[in-house]
């Protein structure tokens, strides 16, 4: 919803699922991701006399019952709230427009947000808040037509980098575009364009998928461990493994287009196995590994949606296997629900701003 001349503007950005190829997006690789309708963040912009960023009553809590309550809260959820994310995207947006000679009209606003994306589940909750806020700013300043769709994920990522959040472009692309997107982050594209080559796909080619996560993820591990440095140092095992992960997305695109779901099973499982071999069990965490193994014990394909905390699962044998899967996950203490895929979020103005390749 968008408006001008004093109207309230509100936008949603959805959680995302990395289906194939992650985490190769930060290693000049390829991925396939989609926008997950089960969870979202929303940002509301209302014109106001002064510029105000409104703390969320739950996620930006600054009043506690006691010192131990505050410490327990920080240990469980860290120092993370949405206010700093909103401030960071405002700064990045302003500086980008200044550098690109995009003039911004006078006027202030009040930004507030809400989110139901579970924390620490690898579903891109932080970037969803930033993405929704960016969409509000594009409409408030009426510059949607001036900032290309392909560039917007970079702005979201840069806002998070301001705060020391380490991530790649994949999540932000899925959230900006919506729907199902094949992404190629080859070095050629990244160096020449400053971003990847993004190709939307028809969401109806996806089979039924399931989302699994822990309600209280206490064992998320340190997923990125030393892999990044080893890759930079030219470690042959990491380089060849990451190349194979990237090729999984390429093969997965062909498999989905052909609706070869048997191949999808193989690729999803291989994607996880490669991640595990590179990062190691200590980095992944016992709870995350259990999440994958529960699915495999009933013959389902499973892999992380991101860097851990949630998994995407496919049952090639249909409803009877789904029943076994649901029973196994409930007994293991996990939440399982059918995946809802959100179609493309791009409007006519957005589509016109996409560069012709």
TrEMBL record:
It comes from the Eukaryota. InterPro entries: GHMP_kinase_C_sf, GHMP_kinase_N_dom, Glucuronokinase-like, Ribosomal_Su5_D2-typ_SF. Gene3D superfamilies: 3.30.230.120. Residues 101-179 form the GHMP kinase N-terminal domain. The keyword ATP-binding applies. PANTHER family: WITH PUTATIVE URIDYL PYROPHOSPHORYLASE-RELATED. This is Glucuronokinase 1-like. It comes from Coffea arabica (Arabian coffee). The lineage of its organism: Eukaryota, Viridiplantae, Streptophyta, Embryophyta, Tracheophyta.
């Amino acid at each position: 919803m968008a408006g001008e001349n004093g109207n309230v503007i509100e936008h949603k950005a959805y959680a995302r699922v990395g289906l194939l190829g992650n985490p190769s997006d930060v290693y000049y690789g390829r991925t396939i991701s989609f926008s997950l309708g089960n969870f979202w963040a929303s940002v509301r912009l209302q014109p106001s006399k002064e510029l105000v960023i409104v703390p969320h009553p739950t996620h930006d809590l600054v009043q506690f019952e006691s010192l131990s309550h505050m410490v327990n809260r920080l240990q469980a959820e860290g120092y993370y709230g949405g206010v700093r994310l909103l401030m960071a995207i405002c700064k990045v947006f302003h500086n980008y427009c200044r550098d690109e000679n995009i003039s911004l009209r006078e006027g202030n606003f009040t930004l507030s947000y809400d989110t139901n994306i579970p924390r620490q589940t690898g579903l891109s909750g932080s970037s969803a808040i930033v993405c929704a806020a960016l969409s509000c700013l594009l409409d408030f300043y009426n510059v949607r037509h001036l900032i290309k769709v392909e560039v917007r994920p970079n702005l979201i990522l840069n806002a998070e980098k301001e705060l020391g959040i380490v991530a790649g472009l994949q999540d932000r692309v899925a959230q900006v575009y919506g729907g199902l997107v094949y992404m190629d982050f080859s070095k050629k594209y990244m160096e020449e364009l400053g971003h990847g080559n993004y190709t939307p796909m028809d969401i109806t080619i996806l089979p039924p998928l399931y989302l699994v996560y822990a309600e209280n993820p206490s064992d998320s591990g340190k997923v990125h461990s030393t892999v990044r440095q080893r890759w930079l140092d030219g470690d042959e095992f990491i380089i060849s493994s990451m190349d194979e992960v990237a090729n999984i997305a390429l093969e997965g695109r062909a498999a989905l287009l052909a609706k070869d779901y048997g191949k999808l099973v193989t690729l999803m499982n291989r994607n996880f196995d490669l991640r595990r071999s590179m990062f190691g069990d200590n980095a992944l965490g016992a709870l995350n590994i259990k999440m994958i193994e529960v699915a495999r014990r009933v013959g389902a394909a499973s892999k992380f949606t991101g860097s851990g905390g949630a998994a995407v699962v496919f049952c090639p044998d249909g409803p009877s296997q789904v029943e076994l899967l649901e029973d196994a996950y409930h007994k293991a203490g996990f939440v399982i629900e059918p995946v809802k895929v959100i179609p493309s979020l791009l409007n006519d103005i957005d589509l016109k701003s996409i560069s012709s390749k």
